[in-house]
Amino acid sequence: MQIKNDTEAMALALEWAAKGMTITAPNPRVGCVIVRDGEVIGAGHTQPAGQAHAEIQALRDAAARGNDVRGATAYVTLEPCSHYGRTPPCSKALVEAGLGRVVAAMGDPNPLVAGRGMAQLEAAGIATASGLLANEAHELNIGFFSRMQRGRPWVRLKTAASLDGMTALENGESQWITGPEARQDGHAWRARACVILTGIGTVKADDPQLTVRGIDTPRQPRRVVVDSRLEIALDAKILQGEPCWIVAALPHPDKEAQLRAAGHEVILLANHAGKVDLPALMLELGRREINEVHVEAGSKLNASLVREGCVDELLVYLAPSLIGAGQGMFALPPLKRLADKVNLRFHDVAMVGADLRVLARLNNEEPT
Q: What is the pTM of this model?
């Protein structure tokens, strides 16, 4: 394909970055295209951790096609890394390959990079530019930015409800309020996350698997259960398959031993009230290199996460139906003043099948 300008080239690099949506964590999703005279001569995206980054993939692609990259322009969705980590620095590879120009969508928030990659390119005489389609690049890696800048993952809380805000009937029946397209879309959001988090209430009431289904994905996100008193049944469906992290507040040595014998990990994090310390949990997940958390829980845990400042974004599917009295999305206490309401801002609204999908962000401090 012919590339007319820098914006088209970076847009294509972002498309390549999105190809790594479910495989790159804990590394960011990065794409790279190499262009000469309007022609793409190499392209690639970051591979799983420990394997080649986007720039290396693009250089290899160019070589496989027999293309000479000397003097060409590389468009990268994130500043090339400049340090030795699981792989050698990409900035060095670009210098050695003889690129004439490198355009990055934005700088790398990793303190080990933070401008050093572009500086190394400039020191080698390579022309550089940055800031092109930066918002789009940031959105693609909002969890990575969150972890690097705030020490905790980006937390997205998903819920599905009728237009009057009910997630289930009073008796708990909820299958299905939304349509098949919305449910499939929800699995796509699960797939991009590093962790799917729920509470013991949901596990006891619904016995969910919380796996990605119907979506082609090379890996299942880690499942995390908030279970203050370690009430989870050993035959719960969520404990089948890949190991889970069970987060408790109160020690229960016998149950802990049983869960660990089955391959699961028990994490003890208690707050002053004898419940799981949710902010501490988010910091612990950040320490474990988790970029994005996808929450699917009941109204009590939903409310606790919001109240304690642990949620960054709501992913809400609204069905064109009315249920009346039922179970709501958030078990928040009554307010005495309207000024105390939880404020959000709409980020994106779209139709998914017959349902409305709303992405709304809380006014927490966001990574930039």
A: 0.92
Pick from 107, 46, 113, 42: nearest CA to 74:
42
Nearest to 2 by CA among 12, 86, 281, 203: 12
Question: Rounded to 5 degrees, what are φ and ψ at 240?
Answer: -85, 150
Q: Determine contact, residues 132/6, Cβ cutoff 8 Å.
A: yes
- Comparing CA positions, the residue from 24, 64, 58 lying closest to residue 40 is 58
Return the higher-pLDDT residue of 14 and 52: 14
Q: CA 351, 353, 355 angle in degrees (round to 5)?
A: 60
Predicted local confidence at residue 113, as pLDDT: 72
Among 8-22, 102-116, 229-243, where is mean pLDDT lowest? 102-116
The owner of tokens 């705030």 is: 150
The pLDDT of residue 81 is 84
Residue appearing with tokens 């699961």: 264
Of 99, 93, 89, 98, residue with least CA distance to 129: 99
Q: Which residues have a Cβ under 8 Å from the Cβ of 206 and sit 6 or more positions away?
A: none
DSSP reduced 3-state for 145? helix
By annotation, the residues acting in catalysis are: 55
- Give ∠ CA 198-202-204 in degrees, rounded to 5: 125
In what side-by-side order are the strands of the sheet with 127-130? Answer: 39-45, 31-36, 73-76, 101-104, 127-130
Give, in order, the Cα–Cα distances in Å from 322 to each of 165, 169, 178, 189: 8, 11, 12, 25
Quick one: average pLDDT of 213-218? 89
Cβ partners under 8 Å of residue 336, min gap 6: none
